Amino acid sequence: MTHTGDRHHAGFKERTRVADARDALRDAVDAHGRTERAPLTEADGRTLAATVTAERNVPHYDRAAMDGYAVRAEDTFGASDRSPAVLDRYEADEDATVGPGEAVRVHTGSALPEGADAVVMIEQVEEVGREVEVFTALAEGKNVGDVGEDVEAGQHLYDPGHRLRPSDLGMLRSVGVDEVEVYQPPEVAVIPTGEELVEAGETPDPGEVVETNGLTVSRFVERWGGEARYRDVVTDDEDKLREALERDRDADVLVTTGGSSVGERDLIPEVVDELGEVLVHGVALKPGHPVALGVVDGTPVVMLPGYPVACIINAVQFLRPALKWAGGMSVPDFPSTQATLTRKIPSEPGVRTFARVQVSEEEGETVAEPVRTSGSGILSSVALADGWVQVPEESEGIAEGKTVTVEKWEELP
Amino acid sequence: MTHTGDRHHAGFKERTRVADARDALRDAVDAHGRTERAPLTEADGRTLAATVTAERNVPHYDRAAMDGYAVRAEDTFGASDRSPAVLDRYEADEDATVGPGEAVRVHTGSALPEGADAVVMIEQVEEVGREVEVFTALAEGKNVGDVGEDVEAGQHLYDPGHRLRPSDLGMLRSVGVDEVEVYQPPEVAVIPTGEELVEAGETPDPGEVVETNGLTVSRFVERWGGEARYRDVVTDDEDKLREALERDRDADVLVTTGGSSVGERDLIPEVVDELGEVLVHGVALKPGHPVALGVVDGTPVVMLPGYPVACIINAVQFLRPALKWAGGMSVPDFPSTQATLTRKIPSEPGVRTFARVQVSEEEGETVAEPVRTSGSGILSSVALADGWVQVPEESEGIAEGKTVTVEKWEELP
């Protein structure tokens, strides 16, 4: 049996392993390094571009850790249930000081009045007229929160690359930080290609398909912390593809969808090779091996295949880290769930397989059911699945009944 | 031993179990029901307000599932490696039809030319001049994707309450849906209270604290899909608190921070009780039992305690579901990780304990280390933790070495 064409039916001679392809991409991506100041109210989900240290102590004053009376500890020495210490009782007052034999009313969080060095809990006293009976002996510092006990001024809090969360913002404000240096979101140009594609709103004729990959990928880009430039469809024409790539040369990452294989209409790797360099073409993953990775003038180019499932898998494997690296961000693990596999997932040795699964509870057990389709074009199988199970290269599949990790790709970050 | 005050040191007579408190809140929250149309490009993360069905078939035409030649299957009957069927070869053409004895070149995704009922893979033919030799017998329908094979027009796709993800958007566009009916985000008024609080940017004196709870809670509200009205600090004064609650009576959920316990400065439950009804005051959870839940004129009021850690725990347990219910959304589980506990977490029977943990990898194992502090005021212990472990009411704690589920509260959704 022979082939009719030369390149376009030859397939890929060699497929790069996922980890190696990712390493090649890693070497090609530099952090853009553009930063800006963000007030805390607008900093949730942003990525720190600088180390943050505390600008003040928390607490910034010696404070009462309980409701009760501020006293001098030595005045309570020897006090007990049967033999209370009797002190003069004063209400709280901003300028209150505690002299020998005196007790000033304090609430949790109050500043410890001058002269006091301990707080007796309200439950351990009895108020009698203008005096207060203290039924316990206190050590110096008892029920007092010292300056800097929670956080000390100058203390290192966060490293660059940290993605800010709501409680981080509260924390930062409490230590006197009101704005932070964060990375600007990386700019990602998303360019859908293919002569069969029509724009949204048009009714496709037979042989035509509405553009969906660019839409999905651009929404992923935003979820991952990038800014998507979602471009119009470009047809399979070398000049037009070249123009499209040139137009977005100022982007931090270029992404194309479609035309990344080795068929006669798969022109993008050629165009990228001419403008720059193709680093990887064809990866040992399934479904979705016809992906290509390249670089043009220092800008990484992720060439995603046109089949929707293949497109998503490769976007997650390659575009997401490229975007994170370009934006100075860390690449956090996806949220995941442990589940018991209800059916074998087959896999070819040497290939990393990604299987869509539906997760449900059955008799108190979390189970993952592989979605019944092997097609890389069946978008509904992704949209109706809950997550993904990876089968590593060393393995020939995962047996029914095994515990697997289901990655939830559609959830942040 | 007696108490100096009456109410403010009496503590809570009874504490409601977390699940019961949540049920009481559930009964008090109605979905606001306000919807809007959103184009797909702006619908990521939004919640569907209506059932969605496919508006067209996918594929919407009979398509070639492989690169190769479209043929009449019957013309290949009996063909084999040694005895190929020989057909007249035609290039693809929009108006191509396949007559008896003819083969037309097609690519994956091409419309199947009229007359054809099968596609032979390019690897199974040889092109010889104006003819093509087919080395295999094809059944009718072989390598043909039928109309509606992936999704049929009219097919039910999503239920109301579904939170849209990037691949859902691609899917929806492919089935001819260009905009969707979604719920408007619920409006959540976040009102920080406490006479000790100063606004951001001010330098706190001894005894004063910068407002942080409202900032953290309002950022959580946005992550959970709500729209936060982050209000200025209100001091501990019944009239001012009443005014503040009245001002936001049009909100879908009211949230206060601070003043929710039973001390003399804890006025909010009283004010809510006067304007409406307090459903729950004091919950059997730790740290953070002094939470209150109420309802004013049909609007739920979540009264969070002022200690930062207690505030966050209760926001997650009560505000999050209230907001989701008000917005017509489902309440998805948090992302979680399984880990081995490095140290016992103690817990009181009858109380649900929430322990902050740091998660790390140790010798290939994921371990969860409880953060060494029991204080409910220590915000740094949250900000520097990775997640939370729950100890249920039935349990007296979780032993070292047990496998626990670490919930990552700070991550969406």
Major sheet size, sense and barrel closure of chain A: 6 strands, mixed
CATH architecture descriptor text of the largest domain in chain A: 3-Layer(aba) Sandwich
Question: Beta-sheet strand percentage of chain A?
Answer: 25-35%
Oligomeric state: homodimer
N-to-C span of chain A: 48 Å
Largest contact between chains? A-B, 85 and 85 residues
Organism (chains A, B): Halospeciosus flavus
InterPro entries (chains A, B): MoaB/Mog-like_dom_sf (IPR036425), MoaB/Mog_dom (IPR001453), MoeA-like (IPR038987), MoeA_C_domain_IV (IPR005111), MoeA_C_domain_IV_sf (IPR036688), MoeA_linker/N (IPR005110), MoeA_linker/N_sf (IPR036135)
Domain MoaB/Mog (chains A, B): 189-325
Pfam families (chains A, B): MoCF_biosynth, MoeA_C, MoeA_N
